[in-house]
Amino acid sequence: MSDFVPLIDLYRGGTLECRHFGAIAVCNADGKLVAAAGNPQWLCFTRSTLKPLQALPFMQSGGAQLFGFTRQDVAMLCASHNGEPMHVAQVQGMLDKTGLTYKSLQCGCHVPLYVEHGAGPAPAQYDERHHNCSGKHSGFLAWCVQQGQPLGNYLAPGHPLQQAIRRDVARAVGLSEGDLKIAIDGCSAPNYAMPLASLATGYARLASGIADAEFGESFAQLADAMSSHPDLVSGTGRNDLAFMRAGRGDWVTKVGADGVQVVASKSRGEALAIKVIDANKPALFAATIATLDQLGWLDARQREELRPWRSEPIANARGTQVGERKPAFELRTAH
């Protein structure tokens, strides 16, 4: 466990019950390590934090302009959405603009996430458009239509789309393509593992927007869409919605499955990437907020807005406080 340090400790009745380990990297857009906890070079699958970078070939090729994708559509390219009616309608609009139907989507189908988050009962019927990754897949298909590439195997690692994504992801995070470790994500698309510091660097560049010499216009469009429409990137009751609202347009945030989270600041030109090794969500969110606090990114209002996500007090079914979560780490400043 030398790569990981305790990030969040859970106490019950004053006695330590759980300890959540992980690692954190804070980097600027030049790839310089600013601060860390644990091993900032820990090789970590990016999961859904990869989505804005997976949209780069489409944005770089002018696909958004060609198909008339709005800022809301661009936000959906980066979304792990709830499958609420507004999300399904947005995806349908994207498909309409490319002349396709939802049956072309190969992300699979699951119960909409808003059900899991208590935002409503499950619909009588749902399909691929309700999948949390359907916006990303709609962008994948749009690139294929634009480039005249086959649709039937657009998720195959050898498909020109996935090759273009691998190329641009590597460029964005400062790695060679061979450094990216490939696996298949929950939506059947290729996903890549990379050092936490590389992921943080990619997000610092994303947040730097037009200032980035290589991807500037694309990064500006993606970051602006995400921070302007966090309800589309996530949805009711979701973490990315709460964080980007608290960031007041400055933060670009994305959560990934199994304990990954990234927060970038446009004004600071920096980003943090965090991995909680046991994938505990309350611990992940609490550790992320503790990191923001230690970095000095939070003012009093933001600290209050994010208080529910700290999950400090632990209450039972009767509402009685029975324990608490506490940060167990201090960032070390890089020299």
Overview of the structural elements:
Strands 1, 2, 3, 7, 8, 9, 10, 11 and 12 form a 9-stranded antiparallel β-sheet that branches. A 3-stranded antiparallel β-sheet has the order 4-6-5. The chain contains 15 helices and 12 strands. The model has no long low-confidence stretch (mean pLDDT 97). It folds into 2 domains: 62 residues, no CATH class; 232 residues, no CATH class. Strand 2 and strand 3 form a beta hairpin. 50% of the residues are buried. Helices cover 39% and strands 21% of the residues. It has 335 residues and is α+β, with helices and mostly antiparallel strands.
**Main sheet makeup:** 9 strands, antiparallel
Number of domains: 2
Order of helices and strands: EEEEHHHHHHHHEEHHHHEEEHHHEEE
Instruction: List how many beta strands DSSP finds.
Output: 12
Structural class comes to alpha+beta
Q: What global shape is seen? A: globular
How much helical structure, as a percent, in the residues? Answer: 25-40%
**Which spans of ≥5 residues are poorly predicted at pLDDT below 50?**
none
Overall radius of gyration:
19 Å
Compute the average pLDDT.
97
User: Helix count, per DSSP?
Assistant: 15
Q: Termini separation (Å)?
A: 24 Å
Portion in strands: 15-25%
